Amino acid sequence: MAEMAAQPSPSAAVQAEDEAFYHESGINAAWTGSRLAIGGLAFLFGCFAFAYFYLRSLNSAGRWQGSGFVQPAVWLGTTIMVLALLSASVNWYGLQRIKAGRKSIWQIAGLFALAMGLAAVALQIWQLTTLPFPPGSSGYSSVFTGFYPVFLTLQLAVLIWLEILLARSRFIPAMSFVEQPPTVTETQSVQRFQASLSSFTTVWSFMALIAFSFWFLFYAL
Amino acid sequence: MSSAEIPLPAGRHAAEREQRRIWWLVAVWLLLSLAACLVIWFVWYPHLPPGDMTTSARHQQFDIAVLAVTAAPVILGVFCYFAYVLVVFRARPGDDSDGAPIYGNAKIQAAWIIGTSMIVLWLFVFGTVELIVPAGAGAGEGASPIWKQSGAQTVAWTPGTNDILQVQVIGQQWTWSYRYPQFGGMESTVLDLPVNTPITFHVTSLDVIHSFWPYLLGVKADANPQVDNVAYTTARQTGSFIVRCNELCGIWHGAMTSNGTVMTPVAFKVWATAVQAREKANGTLAALPPYALTYDPTVIPQLGKDLVNVVGVTGAPGYFYGPGNPVTP
Amino acid sequence: MAIETQPERAEPTGRGPETAGGGERPWWQHMGAHTGLIGAVAGYFLGHWLGNFLGGDFARSSLSDENDVAIVLGYSFAVIGWLAGLGVFNDLFLLMRGKPLPEEPRFLGQEGPGLAKYFRFTLDHKVVGIQYLYGMIAYFLTGGLFAMAIRTELLSPNYHIIGPEQYLMVVGEHGTMMMMMMSSVVLGPFGQYFGPLLIGSKRVAFPRLEALGFWLTPPAYIILLSSILFGGFPTGWTGYEPLATQATTGMDAYFFAFGLMGISMILAGFNMIVTIINFRAPGMRWSRLPMFVWGQFTVSWLQVLAVPVLVGACYMGLTDRTFQTAFFTNQLGGSSFLYQNLFWFFGHPEVYILALPGFGIVTEIISTFCRKPLFGYKVQVAGLLGVATLSFFVWQHHLFDSGINPDMRPLFMLTTELISIPTGFIYLVAMGTFWKARIRFTIPMLFALAFYFNFLIGGISGVFLSDVPADTTEHGSFFVMAHFHYTIMGGLIFAFFGGLYYWLPKMFGIKLNETLGKIHFWTMFLFFNTTFLPLFALGMLGMPRRVFTYARNLETLNDWVSISAFCLGASMLIFLFNFVMSMAFWRQREVGNPWRSRSLEWQLSTPPPAENFRRVPVILAGPYDYGVKDALPVADLDPPPGVIGSAYAPATRGPVTREVED
Q: How far apart (Å, rounded) are the C-alpha atoms in residues C409 and C475?
């Protein structure tokens, strides 16, 4: 059924149908994409976790931690981890509120989440510059100084997503979250926002989980 | 084919012809496979690499021959089938029709899956047995080998007994050296070995990853820094061989070769004790680090007792880095 | 509630006053590769300066002007500058200000003719596919030139043309260029171009990520080549530590380029999975998906899950060389085995990333030219999924002799041998498809047949390698070299050329010259086999890899191989001549459906419309229903109104506060 000669363009209603089809696909894509991103990130962090356990069990030359090993400040590491957890929790709470129709509460929660996330990143950078050991002095130090820059870069990247959501939310009227907006464009725009926000929350919660897991590996184990 | 005076119904005619062709195909395949297997087993096997100089090499010859005999019918089968279908089912010029709409055949699929699975399982069992029986098949087994060879572990090696000869293979950029702990830890740059003696290689490296590959001995073990990699073999023929490096280790990797000879046990003992005596006399043995399974080049006991300070780099006794340096073990 | 159509939606055929896609501005005023280049150069200098500023105190670096930190930061900022100059971040900055994204030009039919769009960051997956095509051909030929240099050096064991450092540089460049870049040689050009078409979609899920995936490949290529300016890297494509930490600055280029290419693969795979899952046309059930798309789907999973481990390993290699971490230094708590495990955990899925798209393409080709349905569609899908899944569990077969835990070896021998079962399914399907077919020996079909021939030899030699005792002699020797050249070059590259001859009429409306094409095929097939078959013998006779000298008795065989390799290179030149002349000068038109294929992409115009389909198509049947009387066409390209609307949950049903699936 190859149709090649000039065809009349499809009518507007039919085009709207097609656009709506792709709008739905796009929304589902946000769900699929976030889960897939978690999978990929899991393998990336798994690479570092493998390095941790492998080097720990090998303990080559007795230098997994070595003599004279000083643990990085536990209070600082814990604060950073708690900030990441809090950020994710506050955002999750905000998501529940916006699903119930309260946009401004989410905006405040989102701002707090963004601030706490940025604070976690900043503190982590500070910790990396004030470590009590040089990067290569032991296996532990290598994995520590190797892992955290990657993790905080990814946290920053995900926080950009949050900033985008916050910026976008300024232009969506609060009423759109309570009842259906009058035009299709607006409806689609709100739905896209909601899908993106849900996906972000999933990914950010995953990042908080990773922050906790690696805190456990580096400070508690 | 019988004469076509009495025309058979077209369908049966074609089906019979096809049946006959398939039997011919199978017959050709069986014949070719049989021929190939016979050639592999009787003509090729005795000459297969890596030769029959040692027990591990002989086992590998056997291994490769069995693999080839298993693989040959598979390869020939696929090729014969392809040749058949490409000739019989090619589109005649001007024929634009479609082929028969066959979507699958459960029996054929099941047969294939079961057949290939069985071949694979056979290969796995065979491979495992061949790995275990010849004490690791000449491959490096790491520091704690599981499949060991039989023999007596002794401090001094005596020819004519079942004593295992311990040889340490040290790889460094870009040469091989060998130490014999049972001869006072003397070091040699040629790998001389006694025939009909169980040999244990302890392979290690001083810097980057190398790989110890005396091809004719059928042994291959990677040399990793600070790791002792153990491999076993027993030589069964005298002769000379070359050792090559099998893991890229820098610019002269290609030139990192070394010679070796397998000789009679008595001749070996004579050679080894002579080298040991010579190295003791000229101070080489004293200059070498004490024999150990791995070496750390940053630890140099002979560096002396005084602190040395050259261009801002301080050497502490026995170490490159001073005691205050956090890197110092 | 009455739904109003969006008031601002213009008719697609009209040109609005906004000329986002082209129009009055000359090409150099748009952001494109030229601005990217400016950004890259500026970024490099900035990064290099920053690196010297930060890390200039390391004694080694300040004395010898070999500051790895400066070089790595230079590369990083160069890439960021390149992307910024291309305009990759423009949409991101728009989003960060809360503005909606502009209407993409192609959706309004304004991409326009002309070559300029191929040098821009464009959101049309077809343009990205063509960008990949030219890129991959360039990268392949570059890698091939290095191969010619290797074989020249190996003509004699004692007369040397290049020094040992240069030889290793050439070896590393050849291997890395091929393994790094060719992972996208099929999925890039054909996957990006035809993937959405084959699933009946007008677009992909994340067009910006897809385009970004392409635009990361030129910097990866340039950075890898820049290693030559620093004396190359001595580790070969595997980058083994601790040699890689010992190496001089050329090594940074390797790790950086490989990591960059890894990110490209991850993005491409990510986009494709989401597109294939979510953007299939109505009626495109999983059981009707073309086999090429199944191949793409499984490979994309490998890319998204395995390649992050490579990025991690490359990153660790770079930190070992710059921050002085000790991941891979035994004396300081690290381990050389760590690198090997991480690298091969990626490395094995990588070779399946290379092999599986080849399976996908040849399956399409044989079905079309046998004019028969695929025999055992589900079996082939099971084969692809089986190979992809198992590929994560076999990596230690690269480490059989390395001194790892010995009890792991029977396990990995088993898993590696198990992989040959799903690989065998591919052959079952091919063999069944040929039965009672009407085979036409067109050039794509010839390449597909050669694929099956070569891959059989390559695959069986893999079984030899998986057997641990036999591997004692074969590991690290030219036997391995022959094995992977047969599977990757004999498999993937032959499939690539098959796909090229098959799909070029669809992409450009131009046919490649038939005579030259046949000459190309036969010379390539013949010389490929004469080059690589003797390598099995060379390996078994004791020649290790990556050496510039070898036993004297192997010289004749090496000379035979080298001369064959030169002839193989010449056959590539025949292809290049054919390609350039056909595309630029002869331009033999071939529009329509020359292969009379049922597949969906052939039902469209040539080249396909800007939006792929005028309407969302409704898929009615699978693409392999040849020979079936009254078979439905594969899709209804003009479904009546309301059909699409009933295919999804409409956007306007119910209150907006419905739970978006979390």
A: 14
Rounded distance between C-alpha atoms, residue B150 and residue B138, angstroms: 14
Interface contact B220-C475, CB threshold 8 A? yes
| B314 to B302, B310, B323, C63, C246: CA distances (angstroms) | 15, 6, 10, 18, 22
- CB B120 to CB C456 under 8 A? no
Interface test with B, best of C454, C472, C479 (most B CBs within 10 A): C472
- Is the residue at B221 inside a domain? yes
Q: Do C331 and A182 touch (CB under 8 A)?
A: no
> Do residues C161 and C196 share a domain?
yes
Residues B77 and B26 in one domain: yes
ipTM surpassing 0.85:
yes
| Measured distance CA(C29)–CA(C23) in Å, rounded | 11
Neighbours of chain A (3+ CB pairs under 8 A): B, C
Q: What is the mean pLDDT of chain C?
A: 89
pTM: 0.91
Q: What is the pLDDT of residues B32-61, one digit of tens each?
A: 999 999 999 999 999 998 999 999 999 999
Residue C330 — pLDDT band, cuts 50, 70, 90?
confident
- Specify the number of domains making up chain B: 2
How many beta carbons lie within 10 A of that of residue C392, not counting itself?
17
Chain centre distance of CA B87: 41
Put residue C232 in one of left, alpha, beta given phi > 0 → left and psi -120 to 50 → alpha.
left
- The beta-carbon neighbor of A62 closest among B326, B327, B329 is B329
What are the beta bridge partners of residue B172? B175
Report CB contact under 8 Å: A61, B326.
no
- The answer to whether the CB atoms of A60 and B329 lie below 8 A apart is no
The three-state secondary structure class of C635 is strand
Domain that holds residue B68: 14-88+114-134
Supply the CATH number for residue C128's domain.
Answer: 1.20.210.10
* Contact residues for B282 (Cβ-Cβ < 8 A; gap 6+): none
B123 occurs within a structural domain: yes
What is the residue extent of each domain of chain A? Answer: 73-221
* Partners of residue B223 on adjacent β-strands: B210
Give pLDDT tens digits for B108-147. Answer: 999 999 999 999 999 999 999 998 888 888 898 988 888 8
- Token pair in block for residue A149: 């820059």
Residue B270 in any domain: the answer is yes
C17 assigned to some structural domain? no
Distance CA A33, CA A16 (A): 25
Q: What angle do CA B114, B116, B118 make, to 5 degrees?
A: 70
Q: Which residues in A lie closer than 8 A to residue B327 (C-beta atoms)? A: 134, 136-137
